[in-house]
Amino acid sequence: MFLVLNTSGLTLIPISVMVYRAQLGAADPSDVFIPILLATFFSTMVGLITVAIYQKINLFDKIIMAYLGGLTAIIGGIIYLFAQMPKDQIATVSSVASNVILFSIIVSFILLGLKAKINVYETFIEGAKEGFEIAVKIIPFLVAILVAIGVFRSSGSMDYIIGGISSFFSWVGVDTDFIPALPTALMKPLSGSGARGMMVDAMNTYGADSFVGRLASTVQGATDTTFYILAVYFGSVGIKNTRYAVTAGLIADFAGIIAAIFIGYLFFH
């Protein structure tokens, strides 16, 4: 459950995405914040439900239903609210709300630390030290997964997959404006750096504030790197039998990508 929730990529503050958008000239780098928050909710929820089904966890418990139902109702209400707005108002409201939420989250972390009499700076440094030690430990597993990803990208398989998907949707008469953002979506489960490169390439080609650029940014923040996370975490503790973790993680990724596309059309198209 922990690993699948990790791969589903619940994103509170997508700093790296906003930094790249700022560097590439986006008028408002944070305008993808709410779309990412909505898309990552769906990927996390689907991942949680998938693992619960595998593990035979009773999701109909009153407390669980209250939490899941309440969160789903809030997210559904937000989507409905934006769906009723005129297109020219969505960008403005989303931008203002994104900045307010981001600022509130950061301030709340600091205030909670002060309330608990925790030295926030020293705690951050301790966490960074532990992160560095873990990074050194997982280098062999990281090298293995990156080599495999490099072979996949160099083989041209990505181009064939994107071409096939584009042809299919064109054949069935579906709008294909989202297709140029798909390389980011397909690379995301394999490599965070690879997906980031695809996102940057999409923004360089179409513009940071284009539909494709914003959709690629939303997809980048909607999920996390499934195979990388599973290889690193399982490998670091010597677990070889991953059971259903890969399947559940990919299901969550698929849900996040589909949600990101629909939300991207709602907000930016």
Short description, anyone?
It is built from 13 helices and no strands.
Fold and architecture overview:
The structure is a single chain. With 269 residues, this protein is mostly helical. The protein has one domain. 77% of the residues lie in helices and 0% in strands. It has 13 helices and no strands. It has helices at 2-8, 15-23, 33-54, 62-84, 87-115, 120-137, 139-154, 157-171, 182-187, 192-206, 211-222, 226-236, 245-268. The model has no long low-confidence stretch (mean pLDDT 82).
Name the structural class: mainly alpha
Mean pLDDT: 82
Number of domains: 1
Shape: globular
Low-confidence blocks of residues: none
Q: What is the helical fraction, as a range of percent?
A: over 70%
Number of helices: 13
How far apart the termini lie comes to 35 Å
Radius of gyration: 19 Å
Order of helices and strands: HHHHHHHHHHHHH
The portion of residues forming beta strands comes to: under 5%
